[in-house]
Amino acid sequence: MPFTPLHCGPGMMVKALAPRQFSICVFTLTQVAMDVEVLWNGFARGALLHGPCHTYRGASVVAAVCFLAGKPASELIKKTWNRAAARCANANLAVPERTSWPASFTAAAFGAYSHILLDSMMHTDMQPLQPWSARNPLFGLIDPMLLQGLCLLLGVAGLVLYFSRGKEG
Questions:
Q1: Which pLDDT value is given to residue 26?
Q2: Most CB atoms closer than 10 Å: which of 23, 59, 96, 163?
Q3: What's the sign of the alpha-carbon dihedral 83, 85, 91, 94?
Q4: Among residues 109, 136, 111, which one has the least CA distance to residue 125?
Q5: Distance between CA atoms of residues 80 and 38, nearest Å
Q6: Which of these, 73, 74, 2, lies nearest to 37 by C-alpha position?
Q7: What does the alpha-carbon distance between residue 119 and residue 58 come to, in Å, rounded to a whole number?
Q8: What is the per-residue pLDDT for 168?
Q9: pLDDT confidence of 1, banded at 50, 70, 90?
Q10: Residues near 136 by Cβ (< 8 Å), separated by ≥ 6?
Q11: Which segment, 3-17, 32-46, 115-129, is predicted with the most confidence on average?
Q12: Residue 74 near residue 23, CB atoms below 8 Å
């Protein structure tokens, strides 16, 4: 199942803990980019959903692309959001539009590598150490439902913490 709370929760907690050093927009774009492969393979092949992008080597390429493309994309998304938010009477929904390069890098790297780590624990077809090994030593380490629940809990706690501190970054 692509892009579940499994992927969102840890990212929201990192955003809450380091709001200026982490772009939730770039993180989310990275998560979506990672799972384009899963969606493509689901339509094209059917059997093997997690291929080369779902390895640490492939995730490095995805992270690099998302780092470079994520900063301008994040700024465009936030600018668009702010234009729409300005129409909401009596609500301050605006967010800072600038995304720093370090925040883009941190989010892309954390997004890609955490994606591989979490998917490795859940999916039998994951081979995260390819091309060096076909093994997946993390599969079955934790019950998938428990893992999703923990990540969802991290996400809710991250949202509460983020908004209790006020919007930054």
A1: 96
A2: 23
A3: negative
A4: 136
A5: 28
A6: 2
A7: 14
A8: 58
A9: very low
A10: 120, 124, 126, 127, 128, 129
A11: 115-129
A12: yes
Say how many C-beta atoms besides its own lie within 10 A of residue 143's C-beta. 11
Cα–Cα distance, 44 to 27 (Å, whole number)? 26
Burial class (CB in 10 A: 0-12, 13-18, 19+), 91: exposed
Joined together, the tokens standing for residue 30 give 């990275």
Length of the chain: 169
Residue at 43: amino acid letter? F
**E-assigned strands of 120-167?**
none
CA distance 63 to 34: 9
| Chain position carrying tokens 């995805």 | 62
Question: Helix (H, G, I), strand (E, B), or coil: what is residue 168?
Answer: coil
Which amino acid is it at 51?
Answer: G
Helix residue ranges per DSSP H, 86-138? 101-122
Tokens of 98: 């600038």
Nearest to 24, CA basis, from 81, 85, 82, 108: 108
Helix or strand or coil: residue 99?
coil
**Under a CB-based contact definition with an 8 Å cutoff, are residues 165 and 16 in contact?**
yes
pTM for the full predicted model: 0.89
Residues contacting residue 39 through CB under 8 Å, at least 6 positions apart = 2
Tell me 129's DSSP state: T
